[in-house]
What does this fold into?
Amino acid sequence: MSYAPMPPLSAPVGYRNGLGTAGFVLGLVGLIFAFIPIVGVVAWPLVILGLIFGIVGTLRANRGQASNKGLAIAAVVLSALGLVICILWTAAFGKAVSDTANGLPAPAAPAAVADAGSDAAAAAPSAAASGKHTIVLEVTTAAKSNVQWNSGFTANSQEVLEKGKTWRQTLSMDDLTFTSVTVTPVDFKLGDKDNSCKITVDGKTVVERSDSVGALCTYQP
It folds into this structure.
């Protein structure tokens, strides 16, 4: 008795589901990092790649080429949520930086330098914009001197003035902040007159100093 040979069994179809799984992992990790300030910047590439992998994985599952459609869809959802959070953090950070910059002192005009004893009004910069506070720093040198000033978060600014010069710097700001100016001689000779500094806030002199060694004027609102 003879038996007909059995037809060969077909090999099971291998589902390539790596993209959906990778997208899920990237989306989940990216979503977690997205909630952490500063560190959350690393979430950007994670959620973007997770979203791409999740979409491709979902399309492959719809075509019957992958068996993890649910995981791929979860990858898309997690990655999209992480991306939204990243965008919100970026917008909030940009607004905070803009608000901080608007509150910092900004020079209304370059520092004016004139001969000591000349018309002060001619050397002074124009008035600050309406609604803002105005701080005027002023230095008069009796010898070649070094002038250094700072205000709030403004980096220290420094320059050297020749003997007999009057220097002015006008600052315009929304909120008053700590401000200082120092004048120290670099070519001091016995018999030289005193160097002097002065700080004026909204037209009122708040501090004025004179000394042959060095004058320091500070203002604390």
Observations:
- The helical segments are 18-34, 43-62, 69-103, 120-123.
